[in-house]
Design a protein that fits this description.
Elements lengths: L8 H4 L1 H11 L4 H5 L5 E4 L14 E15 L6 E8 L4 E7 L1 H9 L5 E11 L2 E5 L2 E4 L13 E4 L8 H14 L10 H7 L4 H9 L4 H30 L14 H8 L6 H15 L5 E6 L5 H14 L3 E5 L3 H15 L17 E4 L5 H13 L4 E4 L13 E7 L6 H8 L8 E6 L4 H8 L4 E5 L9 E7 L5 H15 L3 E5 L23 H10 L7 E4 L5 H12 L5 E4 L12 E6 L7 H8 L9 E7 L6 H11 L3 H12 L25 H17 L7 H10 L2 H9 L1
Parallel strand pairs: 4-6, 9-14, 9-15, 10-12, 10-13, 11-12, 13-14, 16-21, 17-19, 17-20, 18-19, 20-21
Antiparallel strand pairs: 1-8, 2-3, 2-5, 3-4, 5-6, 5-7
């Protein structure tokens, strides 16, 4: 009997098995059966060509408009050029060498076929170079195309979708089916689900859209339930190791701090603060995500939580992704606390604590003092980079961990910090201005409690965002430079952000791509200082600069001694210079939606309005330009997070991949299947409450084990 674990080679032959393994990493029967079609084409229904993305590996169904062979001018030999169409848009094909003769012979005008290849651009035309193709005719030898529905699989340059379809058909003809369905019959009946074998056969060889729908529903449930069972088991085991209770204490640091606030907290800050305060008072470890618009006051919420932990006799640690941001956080917290952060100094408040900075670039004496403050408990609040989680750092009594922009840290780093408590798990608060796909996914899958800050504190100015399409309107770039000069003349400052440094170490490797290298900090700064911004003080900032040099530049910029700062995304989070009012993001199309939103949050932080210019050479009507227009049209980070998720997919929420090309979840979608996820969470919790180890549910246990490889299980344990 053929099982899910059987290897493919004896069933499909070495050539096909090798192509599946090399191109897609599929080695077993289960791997191939769960490699589901990405979509279904109906025979004769042509693909929408204008929706194709540059550099994407695609499969399109189209009609040949023209095809001709000609002599190449630059080198010997002939080439064949063809144009295919969906009726409204065109895609150009080019073939060299022997394939040129085959294409000329087979791609006759009026022929309909499937074409697979990587989308490029040549002279403003979308193009496929040497695409594989399969003619679609009633007499086609490929039995995969005799059905009305053509499954289009995720493919690669090593194996095309029609070859995958033939492999699946060959496998299904000899597959014995599932000996026992992992979902009990009563469970399937309760939720209206078909059997697993029926679902797998239907998903690959459907006869109707209705059949596809019910098959997808069953397979989505398998994935949702497996994830929720794993998370429910994790929650159950996590409760066995308590967190320290940090109940709010009357008359302590937090009360003293609140009494001195020169402004009123927003309603959101008060509400979220109460949620966190309640969590901290419990012995159940807090695992809360604080989502907040750029400038919504997340740091204030975090500081009040840290003071509550200190009042309870514990320490709080704030982990920042860069030394620049860590140093700024330490200064900012100390300034906000005033004499409440001056323990041991003359004139300190009676209840004062100490804010200690720990980074990897500190000299020996500074580091020794910081480590001493941490181990003795003199430092109630510790701020730092990953240096905090090194083995040599010992906390006196860690009660709360605050992680700023949590997607900048690997799971291993966050797990190491959480493990600082020997007998207890510290409470954990993670903050982000724009949820990234995995964060949003883990939230909806039920792994984090969520708080949101949507309103901005009083005094913050709006940010206007404009796309500068230099391909269509080159004069707009000159106007952008002039706008920067106007802001500087008014006493303000500006940022220019570039995708790379340009110091030689990150120079692009030569390839056959016509796409020019991304603009660099070094080149743009040189161009600005010698040209449109001549006479202004222009400086650079990037991650490879020595820490003391980076800090000196940021201090000078904060003091308005630098007019224009040309930087990489090192300024993406946390950098706070209220006098900076304009930002130009060069090659904005090379940044993600969330990054763009984060970056523009660096301007408009004072009383003067902010302006963000998205400079790009991308043409209109492309998917990339649509992304930039979306960022231009809204300041709602939650809306943009949704868009980012749609573009990047959830990522492998149970593994290390940050975006979705190799997701462990093949069918389930965060965007479309929230109802299934919610139902599965309730069902899984009920099962785990009654049977924590799933000993009486071997089918469910096997389903979890199939989804959770050893690597993913370890990831989930640390996440």
């Amino acid at each position: 009997m053929i099982s899910f674990d059987d290897k493919l080679q004896p069933l499909l032959g070495k050539k096909s098995a090798d192509a599946l393994e090399t191109g897609l990493g599929l080695t077993t029967v289960g791997d191939l059966l769960r490699h589901y079609p990405r979509r279904y084409d109906e025979r004769g229904k042509l693909t929408d060509i204008k929706s194709l993305e540059i550099d994407e590996h695609v499969t399109v169904q189209a009609e040949v408009r023209k095809c001709q062979k000609r002599q190449m001018k630059a080198r010997r030999g002939q080439m064949t050029e063809a144009v295919i169409t969906d009726g409204t848009s065109e895609l150009h094909l080019v073939f060299f060498g022997k394939p040129a003769f085959v294409a000329e012979k087979e791609l006759l005008p009026g022929t309909k076929a499937l074409f697979a290849g990587k989308v490029g651009r040549y002279r403003q035309n979308l193009q496929l170079v040497h695409p594989a193709f399969e003619i679609l005719t009633p007499e086609s030898d490929s039995s995969a195309f005799l059905q009305a529905f053509l499954p289009v699989y995720p493919a690669s340059q090593h194996i095309n979708t029609w070859n995958i379809a033939n492999c699946v058909k060959q496998l299904l003809e000899v597959w014995d089916g599932v000996p026992e369905d992992p979902l009990p019959a009563d469970f399937r009946a309760e939720h209206g689900l078909i059997g697993l074998e029926e679902a797998l056969r239907a998903i690959h060889r459907p006869e109707s859209w209705a059949q596809i729908s019910v098959a997808q529903q069953r397979l989505k449930w398998d994935e949702a339930l497996a994830v929720q069972l794993a998370l429910a088991q994790r929650r159950k085991s996590a409760s066995a190791r308590p967190a320290p209770s940090c109940a709010r204490r009357s008359g302590g640091l937090l009360d003293a701090f609140d009494a001195r606030l020169p402004f009123t907290l927003t309603a959101g800050q008060v509400s979220v603060g109460e949620q966190i305060s309640t969590d901290l008072a419990s012995v159940v470890p807090m695992n809360r995500l604080l989502q907040g618009e750029v400038g919504s006051g997340k740091t204030m919420v975090a500081l009040r939580a840290m003071l509550q932990a200190v009042d309870a006799g514990r320490q709080a640690a704030m982990l920042a992704p860069t030394e620049v941001l860590a140093a700024q956080h330490a200064r900012s917290l100390a300034e906000m606390l005033g004499d409440l952060a001056q323990a041991g100094q003359l004139g300190a408040a009676e209840t004062a604590t100490r804010v200690t900075l720990l980074t990897g670039s500190m000299n020996t004496a500074q580091r020794r003092q910081a480590l001493l403050d941490i181990v003795t408990g003199e430092a109630g609040i510790v701020v730092g980079t990953h240096a905090i989680i090194q083995d040599k750092v010992e906390f006196h009594s860690l009660g709360l961990v605050v992680v700023d922009e949590q997607h900048r840290f690997g799971v291993e780093q966050r797990a190491a910090l959480s493990a600082r408590g020997e007998r207890e798990n510290p409470h954990v608060l993670v903050m982000t201005a724009t949820p990234i796909p995995r964060t949003v996914a883990m939230t909806v899958y039920g792994d984090l409690e969520v708080s949101a800050l949507r309103e901005l504190p009083g005094g913050r100015s709006p940010i206007k965002t404009s796309v500068v399409p230099v391909r269509e309107k080159p004069t707009w770039l000159d106007r952008a430079f002039a706008r920067v000069r106007e802001e500087v003349a008014a006493g303000h400052q500006a940022y220019f952000v570039c995708p790379r440094i340009g110091d030689g170490d990150d120079d692009p490797k030569p390839d056959d791509s016509e796409k020019r290298p991304a603009l660099s900090v070094v080149d743009v700064a040189t161009m600005l200082a010698a040209g449109p911004l001549k006479g202004l003080r222009v400086e650079i900032l990037h991650g490879r600069m020595p820490p003391d040099e980076k800090d000196a530049v940021m201090r000078a910029f904060s003091a308005n001694q630098i007019h224009v700062l040309v930087a990489t995304t090192v300024i993406e989070v946390g950098v706070n210079v209220p006098n900076a009012t304009v930002m130009a993001i060069m090659d904005a199309d090379r940044f993600g939606v969330s990054q763009l939103h984060q970056l523009r949050g660096r301007v408009g932080r004072g009383s003067a309005p902010g302006l963000c210019l998205l400079v790009t050479e991308m043409p209109e009507m492309t998917a990339t330009m649509e992304r930039l227009r979306a960022v231009e049209s809204t300041l709602d980070g939650f809306e943009l997070a949704q868009l980012d998720l749609e573009l990047r997919r959830e990522g492998d929420i149970l593994g290390a991949a940050q975006s979705g090309t190799r997701s462990g979840l093949k069918m389930l979608s965060l965007l479309r299947d929230e109802d299934i996820i919610a139902e599965a969470r309730t069902a899984a919790q009920s099962v785990v409450d009654a049977d924590p180890d799933l000993t009486t549910h071997p089918g469910l246990a096997a389903m979890v084990a199939t989804l959770l490889t050893e690597e993913r299980a370890e990831f989930l344990e640390k996440a």
